[in-house]
Amino acid sequence: FPVDRIRNFCIVAHIDHGKSTLADRLLEMTGAIAKTEKNKQVLDKLQVERERGITVKAQTASLFYHHKGQQYLLNLIDTPGHVDFSYEVSRSLSACQGVLLIVDANQGIQAQTVANFYLAFEAQLAIIPVINKIDLKNADPDRVESQIEKVLDIPKEECIRISAKLGMNVEKVLQAVVERIPPPTGSIDEPFKALVFDSNFDHYRGVVANIAVVGGRVNKGDKIVSAHLGKTYEVNELGLLRPDEHPTQKLFAGQVGYMVAGMKDVKEAQIGDTLHLQNQPVEALPGFKPAKAMVFAGMYPVDQSEYPALRSAMERLTLNDSSVTVQKDSSLALGAGWRLGFLGLLHMEVFNQRLEQEYNASVIITAPTVPYKAVLSSARLIKEHGSEEITIVNPAHFPDRSVVAEYLEPMVLGTILAPDAYTGKIMSLCLNRRAVQKNMVYIDDQRVMMKYLFPLNEIVVDFYDLLKSLSSGYASFDYENAGYQAADLIKMDILLNGQPVEELTTIIHRYFMRWLKRLIGRLLLIEYYIQVSLNKAAAIKPYRKNVLAKCYGGDITRKMKLLKKQAEGKKKMRRVGNVDVPKDAFISVLKRK
Ligand code: GTP
């Protein structure tokens, strides 16, 4: 396929603005899938995506499209909308020259619209603004166009108004892709060079890599080298994703497709790696910035005998999700495990769910924490660590104040978009979370965009849920890294039946103490003692609950039912010390509502 008739583009948008629906329409119109009711969100392949109705993984599809008597090859990448998966978006953008930026005609610009716009803008991609859902009764495309012009500085005239659901004007989107997005720059006469931008593990074939061919061509049977490890492989299988695998003999410059080359170990197909032909070395492509983990948690097998199986499941899943960082860890109560770093709490939940659903693994996740830092004052410790500043991703290892000059906590710059009727409530929520307002502008006569500097720890667990509920679902939120700031931090130990439980240890800000009484409330199901220790100064009275207390009268069947229910509930528990702790306790301990 001549390179000048190839277009590589992503669809980006705020969550639920209709990316996957538009992708379905584009696939139908170009004949890649049949037009039936069953083919809904075909690119959301994972069980977790279908259950949660969100896109988690970017997916690729190659489409053939006729325009003015010529056939074009359009490579579409559908990307996730949620902030926790923005790493998927930035990786996908590196395989593209343009984006369709979808905005809901009723909701208008939202926090992730702005964030995704800047990702594409910084990557210098062509941006086609598409206003979707114009069929809705309260759609207001005029207003949305003005917002796009005001906030993103894109002329109104460039917007395309569509209804992805009804297929209205979708043809115009395809035309714009051809006319407004430039073709890739590589040529088939160069030496073969490809970027691995995603990969999967297949039980039968080993690693299946998604590649963007930047230059030259590759044939089935060629010997290729991965620049990262310098290992040579033979290409067994090549093809396009339409969106199902469609084997071909060759892939050319500008094309996006998949490759199977007998890589059996997940470490062999690193995302961001460059592939080239044997004896034809090329300069490695820039690859990707490593993802910056924002939330850390311990992960342990429910049963230690499952450790090896869980390790291999995790290796395979982290191949497909390279934004997770993995470090070995161990704990007295839970045995050998790992300390994992995630981009956010939803990311952590999705990872956990994928382990359970795709790999049949059952895991315990400990309370998540953000990465704190400490500036050490003890000369001995500085020597031991080789530096004055250390990062703490496990609260159990939080150094004592006596050896620390200063604690630091990670900060983020948050963007909130909401109707101005909610401004007051939002401001007090932010104040409550130790946030400092940086900016506030009206994006039209009713909606405001606010910027706040937050301690990451204050928003990571339940901030978004609270924001949504106090704004009746109208506020949206996104954030980016903003370095570290000094903070007055305390390590909080939790004692069960008098024994400290390392896995429940958390780092809190001094002001947080007053929440504690309420916080401990509903943690335990049965009659055990729970005690909180803050330098032993503020122990809280033990809390107890009897499951049978609800059974007034002598209804024995109801009692049995409850006891049975409790027994089932216990399966989800893990014995810590001499107490069964519900699997969720580790996270619940951090929620404040
Ligand atoms: P994520 O992948 O979770 O980020 O969502 P998405 O952007 O892919 O949105 P999706 O395509 O799943 O659409 C979200 C909802 O909007 C679904 O219920 C769609 O049926 C609906 N929707 C999408 N396009 C249109 C449209 O043109 N008109 C109307 N009325 N509804 C639409």
UniProtKB/TrEMBL annotation:
GO cellular component assignments: mitochondrial inner membrane; mitochondrial matrix
Reaction(s) the record says it catalyses: GTP + H2O = GDP + phosphate + H(+)
Protein name (Swiss-Prot/TrEMBL): GTP binding elongation factor GUF1
Gene3D superfamilies in the cross-refs: 3.30.70.240, Elongation factor 4, C-terminal domain, Elongation Factor G (Translational Gtpase), domain 3, P-loop containing nucleotide triphosphate hydrolases, Translation factors
Membrane topology: Peripheral membrane protein
Domain Tr-type G span(s) in chain numbering: 4-185
Subcellular compartments: Mitochondrion inner membrane
A GO molecular function held by the record: mitochondrial ribosome binding
Family stated for the protein in its record: Belongs to the TRAFAC class translation factor GTPase superfamily. Classic translation factor GTPase family. LepA subfamily.
Task of the protein: Promotes mitochondrial protein synthesis. May act as a fidelity factor of the translation reaction, by catalyzing a one-codon backward translocation of tRNAs on improperly translocated ribosomes. Binds to mitochondrial ribosomes in a GTP-dependent manner.
Domain of life: Eukaryota
Source organism of the structure: Nothobranchius furzeri (Turquoise killifish)
